[in-house]
Amino acid sequence: MLTEPVVSVIVPTHDCATYLPDALGSVFDQTFDLFELIVVDDGSTDATSEVLRRCDDERLRAVTQARRGAAAARNRGVSLARAPLLAFLDADDMWHPDKLSAQCAVLEVEPELDMLFGHFEEFDDVTGEVRRAAPGYSSGTLMVRRSAFMRVGPFSVAWQVGEFIDWYARAIDGGLTSMMRPEVVLRRRVHAANITRSSRQDYARVLSTVHHRRRAAGAR
Fold this sequence. Notes:
Elements: E1 7-13, H1 20-28, E2 35-42, H2 48-53, E3 60-65, H3 70-80, E4 85-88, E5 94-95, H4 99-109, E6 115-124, E7 130-136, E8 143-145, H5 146-152, H6 163-173, E9 178-190, H7 197-219
Helix pairs in contact: 6-7
């Protein structure tokens, strides 16, 4: 019988069957096992459903929805989460094995802390070469208390990409407390599909929206 989870791991995916087994494997290989894994299939048309059918682990819950984007898929996962802590992983990335254990340990002894980040490393999908390692303010390095997430509210579905930038800005403006830890917790895969000009333009629009929102709040 599944033990009540401490962490709800949420993985949104769309047409990522090639990489999804690595992502799921990195979750199941965690040294901390008191988690539930919620995979939200956001209208995939590839072999994603077959990948999920082959995954025989009672901690996995897979749901499908019509194509609505990564933000909506993450929000769907949060709505299904049962654990007091939330963690997010993109379907083409991987976690280091101690990600959950290290972050849970910190949040256990820091009850006033709302959310926690770690470092990430990028690696080339073709060569495997690690390109850089740096602090990562991203959903993939985040662990957040579910109660704190709900105070901020869901990810905005207005953006194709950059929804985490918007959410994090709202979290900071709302007074959530955070910490950046030095451990590398995320391996971010670099491939052609995740670096586009349109994505960079969307990031710029998100940042502009955050700036104008803060200016408007300051004027009140």
